[in-house]
Amino acid sequence: xxxxxxxxxxxxxxxxxxxxxxxxxxxxxxxxxxxxxxxxxxxxxxxxxxxxxxxxxxxxxxxxxxxxxxxxxxxxxxxxxxxxxxxxxxxxxxxxxxxxxxxxxxxxxxxxxxxxxxxxxxxxxxxxxxxxxxxxxxxxxxxxxxxxxxxxxxxxxxxxxxxxxxxxxxxxxxxxxxxxxxxxxxxxxxxxxxxxxxxxxxxxx
Amino acid sequence: xxxxxxxxxxxxxxxxxxxxxxxxxxxxxxxxxxxxxxxxxxxxxxxxxxxxxxxxxxxxxxxxxxxxxxx
Lengths: 205, 71
Known about the structure:
heterodimer; A: mainly alpha; Arc Repressor Mutant, subunit A; 2 domains; two-stranded antiparallel sheet; 8 helices; B: mainly alpha; 3 helices; flat
C-alpha cells in the first residue's frame, strides 16, 4: 500500500498540470485531480495487499484488464471530467425546463436570475461582515489564486494565520448555504450558473 | 430529497479540503490522504465531504465572479 501511495503521489503533480492545461481552470483542475486521487486511493484500500498494479478503474465501464496506477489515475480523471460535463448539461436542461415557462427563451428568466443573485448577495453580505484581513485572504486565495506563501508575504502575516483566516472565511460563507437550504425547503428555488456548482440544483429541487 | 449531511461533519470536511488546497507539496498530499481516509469512514462522511466540496467549488465560482466585478 505504501508503494502505491508513493506512486500515486509521484503522478499527482503531472495529472494536475495536465488538467490545468486542458481545463484552463487551476481550481477546477485541482478538484478533479483530488477526486481522482481519492477514488483510486479508495479503490486501492479495498484491494488486499495494496499491489502496485491494480484492476481497472472503479468508474470504468470499459476494459477489465490490469493497468498501472498512473494510467488508472489519469483515466479516472478523464471519466470525472466527462461525468461532470454531463451533469452540467443535465442541470442546464433542468433549469431551462423549469424556468423558461415552456418556451425557448434565450435570456434567463427572472426567477433564475433572482435565485443566482440571492446566493451571491448572501455570500457577499457574509464576506462584508468578515474582518478585512480575513476577507482579503479569502479573495486572494479563491478569486486570484495566490498561494499561502504569497498571501502571507503580501499581508505580512504568518502562513499559519493565512490558513486560519481562509478556513474561518470558508466556514462562515459555507453557512450561507445551510441557511439558504433551510429557507428554500419551504420555498423551493433553484440556483445554478456557469462557474457555480450546478449540482446544488439537485438539493434545491 | 436526499437527507442533508450533518453540518458539523460538513465543516470538518471543509476544513480538510481547505487544508489540502492551501498546504504546500508533501503537506498537501498528506492532507489529501487524510481527507480520503476521513470520507471513507462512512456513507455520512462521504456525503458530508461531497457537500463540502460543492460549497467550496461554489464559493470559488462566486469569488471569481467578484473578481470580475472588481475590475
